[in-house]
Automatic annotation (TrEMBL):
<feature type="active site" description="Charge relay system">
    <location>
        <position position="204"/>
    </location>
</feature>
<feature type="active site" description="Charge relay system">
    <location>
        <position position="414"/>
    </location>
</feature>
<feature type="active site" description="Charge relay system">
    <location>
        <position position="167"/>
    </location>
</feature>
<feature type="domain" description="Peptidase S8/S53">
    <location>
        <begin position="161"/>
        <end position="443"/>
    </location>
</feature>
<dbReference type="GO" id="GO:0004252">
    <property type="term" value="F:serine-type endopeptidase activity"/>
</dbReference>
<keyword id="KW-0720">Serine protease</keyword>
<keyword id="KW-0645">Protease</keyword>
<feature type="region of interest" description="Disordered">
    <location>
        <begin position="133"/>
        <end position="155"/>
    </location>
</feature>
<dbReference type="InterPro" id="IPR036852">
    <property type="entry name" value="Peptidase_S8/S53_dom_sf"/>
</dbReference>
<dbReference type="InterPro" id="IPR023828">
    <property type="entry name" value="Peptidase_S8_Ser-AS"/>
</dbReference>
<dbReference type="InterPro" id="IPR050131">
    <property type="entry name" value="Peptidase_S8_subtilisin-like"/>
</dbReference>
<dbReference type="GO" id="GO:0006508">
    <property type="term" value="P:proteolysis"/>
</dbReference>
<dbReference type="Pfam" id="PF00082">
    <property type="entry name" value="Peptidase_S8"/>
</dbReference>
<dbReference type="InterPro" id="IPR015500">
    <property type="entry name" value="Peptidase_S8_subtilisin-rel"/>
</dbReference>
<dbReference type="GO" id="GO:0005615">
    <property type="term" value="C:extracellular space"/>
</dbReference>
<keyword id="KW-0378">Hydrolase</keyword>
<comment type="similarity">
    <text>Belongs to the peptidase S8 family.</text>
</comment>
Length: 478
């Protein structure tokens, strides 16, 4: 039986958010993860309308409990949303929460009258975008240089572009990599387990910081461990955490964000409304990952790039495969993805510079690409057996362990994103442009690079120091 990557990752996220019962959604499929028994609504009068409408509907439904409907978070806060309980989160299983689905359907008439959404699920936002990582890190040979290699540009603290990476924290030995000499921020909390083995997603933020610094050495990169706990956070908390990140040091030139979720809608995340509105009024450019589910469904907050008023404020980034000519098998795609950058088998700093550090794989590879592509993609190469896969479907395989000694190869739109952010920062330095949004416009206007993604001719940003990785085509028997 093939690994069930989404379900495996659900188990991992549920363990990290052990006090929050979770379900898969929407009602009849597994496209995202959300909190059971709760919906989100905007503070104030709209929350009151949601509460009263759902309670009235549940009163007439014999299989629903109206007494469950009540607010379970402060009525007002900076994020502009409040959590409203609509059911018993302890009931049902992971396959979905009927109470949440029926509460949302009960609001359709009221939403129609008002002309906008009044409530939503409380989604899980994850750095394993779409809850499925592009792959897991692979040790890079000691003789291999970072890819992209460091651009030939100096560092000037007076003109350095400020880049905020909202992710996991910095590894303790990140300073051993010269390109990260000007990087600061939060330390990674608990890098290893009790046996000294790297925990899943540890080093994600450090890897991203290394990519930004390679493409744009004249940057002051700050890494915040906003998504430290298995890379997952509830939508209701995410906006507040983003506010905390920018409040600490002020709004940066660029935010590089390799996290998000789909929600089955085309109008954004309710829990991010307040943050995105404030972002729109700032000068900061948000560069956001498009997601790793090989889907055209909008992925947030990246898909804000095509919403009115956000076109200049957000740059959504998809991933190209190793040769940079076509889309990576896992990359989300569609008109809401504004640009693509290499995102497969990139090489950057992870950990192990001071002493080798072991890692045990969590997900088994597939026999063939899980998205139907016919090249040797990261779904299947390099092959390994993972702990979470074996826990669901025992094959008598022993999970593979590797040792990291500094650098790693890693794939995902998570890593195409900092390449695009670095591109914008490098353009700002080269052209003495102080406005990151103007730099974004200029860069896309003068860009002559293109690639093919799902038959579409799309803009591609390929750093000058990035080296293509050979792509192996597989025969029909593979």
């Amino acid at each position: 039986m093939a690994p069930q990557r989404f379900h495996e990752q659900f188990d991992q996220i549920q363990r990290s958010l052990s006090d929050v019962p979770l379900a898969m959604g929407p009602d009849d499929s597994a496209e995202f993860i959300y909190e059971k028994g709760v919906v989100l609504a905007r503070d104030g009068e709209e929350a009151q309308v949601v509460e009263e409408t759902v309670r009235a509907h549940f009163t007439t439904a014999p299989d629903l409990v109206a007494d469950h409907v009540r607010r379970v978070s402060p009525e007002t806060n900076r994020t502009g949303v409040t959590r409203i309980q609509v059911g018993d989160p302890g009931q049902g299983d992971r396959s979905g929460d009927p109470a949440v689905g029926r509460a949302l359907r009960a609001l359709r008439e009221a939403e129609g009258r008002r002309g906008r959404r009044l409530a939503s699920r409380n989604h899980v936002v994850s750095i394993a975008v779409n809850a499925c990582p592009g792959d897991e890190p692979v040790p890079a040979p000691s003789s291999e240089q970072p890819n992209p290699a460091a651009a030939e540009a100096g560092y000037d603290p007076d003109t350095a572009v400020g880049v905020l990476v909202v992710d996991t924290g910095l590894m303790h030995d990140h300073g051993s990599y010269a390109l990260l000499a000007h990087t600061r921020g939060d330390a990674q909390i608990r890098e290893t387990d009790d046996q000294g083995v790297l925990r899943q997603y540890v080093g994600h933020g450090t890897f991203i910081a290394g990519l930004v610094a390679a493409v744009a050495p004249n940057t002051d990169v700050t890494v915040r461990n906003t998504l430290n706990d298995a890379g997952a956070i509830l939508e209701s908390e995410f906006g507040g955490k983003l506010f905390e990140a920018v409040d600490r040091d002020g709004w940066p030139d660029i935010i590089s964000l390799s996290a998000g979720t789909s929600n089955g809608r085309t109008d954004g995340l309710l829990g991010l409304d307040a943050f995105m509105s404030e972002l729109r009024d700032q000068n900061t450019l948000l560069v956001a990952a498009a997601g790793n589910n090989a889907s055209a469904t909008p992925f947030w907050p990246a898909a804000y790039a095509t919403l009115p008023g956000y076109e200049d404020a957000v740059l959504s980034v998809g991933a190209l495969r190793g040769d940079g000519e076509f889309g990576a098998c896992f990359s989300n795609h569609g008109p809401w993805v504004r640009v693509y950058a290499p995102g497969e088998r990139l090489t950057s700093a992870l950990t192990g510079f001071e002493a080798p550090v072991p890692y045990v794989y969590q997900h088994s590879t597939y026999d063939a690409c899980r998205f139907g592509f016919t090249y040797a993609c990261t779904c299947q190469s390099p092959r390994h057996t993972g702990v979470l896969s074996e826990a669901r479907e025992a094959t008598a395989g022993k999970p593979d362990q590797v040792m990291f000694e500094g650098f790693a190869q890693w794939s995902g739109t998570s890593f195409a994103t900092p390449l695009a952010a670095g591109h914008v920062a490098a353009h700002m330095t080269a052209h003495k442009e102080s406005d990151p949004r103007a730099a974004r416009r200029q860069l896309l206007e003068i860009n002559t690079g293109f690639a093919e993604v799902r038959g579409a001719h799309v803009p591609a940003l390929r750093p000058a120091t990035w080296r293509p990785v050979p792509v192996v085509r597989l025969g029909p028997e593979a």
